[in-house]
Amino acid sequence: MILIVDEEAQGSKEEFCSVDKLKREVVKYIDESVEEITIKKRAVYNNSQS
């Protein structure tokens, strides 16, 4: 899972392997100055033939 924070002056991109860790990180960004939060869920398919 990847969290991309796109702020006006600077942004960040972090990868998480735990949903709980990702949730805790998202909560850090939520305060009274937040105007918009977008969450996208994309399915990843493993098409490799083993």
From TrEMBL:
The lineage of its organism: Bacteria, Bacillati, Bacillota, Clostridia, Lachnospirales. This is Uncharacterized protein.
